[in-house]
Design goal:
Elements: H1 3-14, H2 22-27, H3 38-57, E1 63-65, E2 70-72, H4 96-100, H5 104-108, H6 130-151, H7 159-174, H8 181-196, H9 205-225, H10 230-254, H11 256-266, H12 270-273
Antiparallel strand pairs: 1-2
Helix pairs in contact: 6-7, 8-9, 9-10, 10-11
């Protein structure tokens, strides 16, 4: 071998060979190094286990009625090990709002009072206060009898009987039994304002939610009797959404205790008026 050939062989052996380096291949890895400590990892696992345990104790409702504000639960079987759901109750029955609202059918088909024995109608048209009743059926007939009796100089023996008949006629005209549904609605609105707004406050969230709840129950009865009335069904959905906004505002401004008290007064449940409202109408 010549000197040039031996020099070329030595230079060729000193050059790097083709292909990846073995040192670089050993240091390369596709997985990122773990930056989470074992303490944090255990804490995350413990939190996930606690959340799973809490979710297992929560009883999912079978159905939610956002119109009436009720949450329905399925009755558990005898072999079920799940927690017992709450008892099925109707929060509307006996609530504060339900006690003050008047039913037109009950008023229209009720027995008339005995006018001959001095009875008066229990309810009058809207706008007739107790002072007006005392004036119309007490002071005015008595004053008219006195004036007529004095004008006839003691000869008017049938004056009091005539005034009593006129007072009875006025009672029959102003009796709520002889009115229509619109008069009952007006009187219900006034009773709600008197109960929840002390007779003067008509714009607070509590009064508005009570008025909307009364409208919802009234419109729901109509929609149930007339299932093809799609226009009133749309109005019913709008009223439910509007009531949810008023309740949300009341909760944000008045606090949790006042919010729960208002829901109890209106006969509603939290799960039926919060979150997404799916109205089946």
């Amino acid at each position: 071998m010549s000197f040039s050939q031996s020099l070329f062989a030595s230079l060729r052996s000193s050059l790097p060979t083709a292909g990846p380096s073995t040192s670089r291949v050993a240091a390369f890895s596709t997985t990122a190094p773990s930056l989470v400590s074992k303490r944090k990892l255990l804490a995350k696992r413990r939190k996930a286990a606690n959340l799973a345990l809490q979710s297992s104790r929560i009883i999912p409702p079978e159905s939610i009625d956002p119109v009436l504000g009720r949450v329905h639960y399925r009755a558990p079987s005898s072999r079920s090990t799940a927690p017992t759901p709450p008892e099925a109750t109707n929060p509307w029955q006996g609530c504060r709002l339900q006690r003050i609202l008047l039913d037109y059918d009950q008023i229209a088909y009720s027995a008339p009072p005995n006018y001959t024995s001095g009875e008066r109608p229990p309810l009058f048209l809207p706008g007739i206060s107790e002072q007006d009743q005392a004036l119309l059926f007490g002071a005015i007939p008595h004053a008219s009898s006195e004036l007529k009796f004095a004008a006839k100089r003691g000869e008017g023996t049938g004056v009091e009987l005539e005034q009593a008949k006129q007072a009875e006629m006025m009672m029959r005209i102003l009796d709520l039994r002889n009115s229509g549904k619109e008069a009952v609605k007006v009187l219900n609105r006034q009773r709600v304002v008197d109960e929840f707004g002390n007779g003067t406050d008509t714009g607070s969230s509590a009064v508005q939610a009570a008025l909307l709840t009364a409208k919802i129950h009234n419109l729901l009865a109509h929609a149930t009797q007339n299932p093809k009335d799609t226009l009133n069904k749309r109005s019913l959905r709008l009223l439910v959404q509007q009531r949810a906004r008023h309740l949300k505002y009341h909760k944000r401004t008045r606090g949790e205790e006042s919010y729960d008290a208002l829901l109890a007064d209106l006969g509603l449940e939290r799960g039926a008026v919060e979150g997404e409202l799916l109205i089946p109408y």
